[in-house]
Amino acid sequence: MITVKNLHKEFKNADGTTSHVLDGINYEINKGEKIVIVGPSGSGKSTFLRCLNLLERPTSGQIIFDGEDITAPGVNINKVRERMGMVFQNFNLFNNLTIMQNIILAPVKLKVMSEAEARKKATELLERVNLLDKADVYPASLSGGQKQRIAIVRSLCMNPEMMLFDEPTSALDPEMVGEVLDVMKQLADDGMTMVVVTHEMGFAREVATKVLFVDEGKILEENTPDEFFDHPRSKRLQDFLSKVL
Q1: CA 100, CA 70: separation in Å to the nearest integer?
Q2: pTM (2 decimals)?
Q3: Residue 172 burial (CB count, 10 A)
Q4: Mean pLDDT by 10 residues, the chain (245 residues)
Q5: Helices (H), 67-143
Q6: Torsion angles phi and psi, residue 7, rounded to 5
Q7: How far apart are CA 38 and CA 135, in angstroms?
């Protein structure tokens, strides 16, 4: 579904130096896979994820999505993004719109579906995450966990072919993490292709088809969850796991 070829990303620092955040990543994501990316802060995990839908423009390299090189000049990246849902750390809900209005805004505005169709789809999704009773309230009245579940519903209302999650539980109180992970597990069970950057090692072990360890802009190790956690090959991953498990 996605092929990443020799992906590099550099950032210019205030002092004129350059930080090489992604250093020649090559990877393939197949339909239906659940790829979970872990690693220390500042390792390039989120930058890699945000390059997949060009929220960050790679310095060089190619990203091929469903046969199309989306880094090529002239590609309508907004049309591509309609097919990739994205969930951020900080919900990004519009506080002046009700939950229903938040959810149907994009599909109606982008003419993906009529307002009636969008409301029907939103209602089904809200029911699925046990938040149908919140359809007409405003985001300020919701808990962090509820807001993040709404953010997931908003992405799903576009009927994406895959979902990207950028540390979706890191801004939540610990007791709210489970309710968001449960929705993500449901999605995984339904066969959604997912790429998830997270610190939740239990989720990685339970849901991932593959776990990647990223450090200093490189994929240092990739394996099935059992092998990844029980038999880490590199000393660097062994050190990392000893601190987080």
Answers
A1: 31
A2: 0.93
A3: 20
A4: 95 90 96 96 94 94 94 91 92 94 95 94 94 96 94 94 94 90 93 95 94 96 96 96 92
A5: 77-81, 99-109, 115-128
A6: -80, 125
A7: 34
